[in-house]
């Protein structure tokens, strides 16, 4: 009723072997056919920078009797600056000073004139990528108590990105 022992085990092992072969073959096919893709988003942010080089700057100036009679002194090309930036938003010039015997300062050579009476005054410059040169001239309006003599430069300039 039962087949002989040798015949059963040989058929059984052939069947198991064939099943294992098919299973391995199908697994290898699936591994080879599966590819995975992914998207990577990269964001780069370039920080704004500004570099300022002073080409020349008066360290002092002389007030004469004629300047006092006229009521002002013009200092042409007293500050020559080179500004380099990558900012799209432009930058801001700020002028600060202890004016002493000077009542008012008018600065020319920027996008718009600057008027400094006391403390500080600022003016925005439009965005200019790369290097830009500025040749600044000043008119110092003298106060009534101004005396002739040599005076130290009274104004500090700072520049920063907007």
Task: Give structural attributes.
162 residues; 3-stranded antiparallel sheet; 2 helices; 22% helix; rod-shaped
Description:
By secondary structure, the protein is an alpha+beta fold. The strands form three sheets. A five-stranded antiparallel sheet has the order 1-3-8-5-6. Strands 7-4-10 form a three-stranded antiparallel sheet, with no helix packed on it. It has a two-stranded antiparallel sheet with strand order 2-9. The chain starts with a helix and ends with a strand. It is 22% helix and 46% strand.
Concise account of the structure shown:
By secondary structure, this protein is of the alpha+beta class.
What is this structure's SSE topology?
Layout (H helix, E strand, L loop, with lengths): L4 H29 L16 E8 L2 E4 L1 H6 L1 E14 L5 E7 L4 E7 L5 E3 L2 E7 L4 E13 L6 E4 L2 E7 L1
Antiparallel strand pairs: 1-3, 2-9, 3-8, 4-7, 4-10, 5-6, 5-8
**Residue ranges: pLDDT <50 for 5 or more in a row?**
none
* CATH class category label of one domain: Mainly Beta
> What is the succession of H and E elements?
HEEHEEEEEEEE
Give the % helix: 10-25%
Q: Give the strand tally.
A: 10
Largest sheet entry: 5 strands, antiparallel
Kindly report the spatial arrangement of strands forming the biggest sheet: 1-3-8-5-6
**Percentage of residues in strands:** over 45%
Alpha carbon gap, first and last residue: 99 Å
Helices, by number, come to: 2
């Amino acid at each position: 009723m039962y087949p002989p022992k040798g015949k059963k085990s040989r058929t059984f092992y052939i069947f198991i072997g064939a099943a294992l072969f098919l299973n391995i073959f199908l697994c290898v096919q699936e591994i080879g056919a599966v590819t995975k893709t992914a998207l990577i988003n990269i964001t780069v942010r370039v920080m704004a920078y500004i570099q300022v080089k002073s080409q020349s700057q008066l360290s002092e100036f002389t007030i004469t009797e004629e300047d006092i009679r006229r009521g002002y002194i013009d200092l042409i090309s007293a500050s020559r600056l080179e500004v380099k930036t990558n900012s799209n938003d432009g930058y801001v010039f700020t002028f600060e000073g202890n004016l002493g015997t000077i009542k008012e300062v008018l600065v020319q050579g920027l996008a718009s004139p600057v008027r400094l009476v006391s403390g500080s005054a600022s003016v925005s410059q439009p965005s200019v990528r790369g290097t830009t040169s500025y040749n600044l001239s000043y008119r110092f309006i003298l106060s009534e108590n101004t005396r002739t003599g040599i005076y130290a430069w009274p104004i500090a300039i700072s520049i920063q990105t907007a």
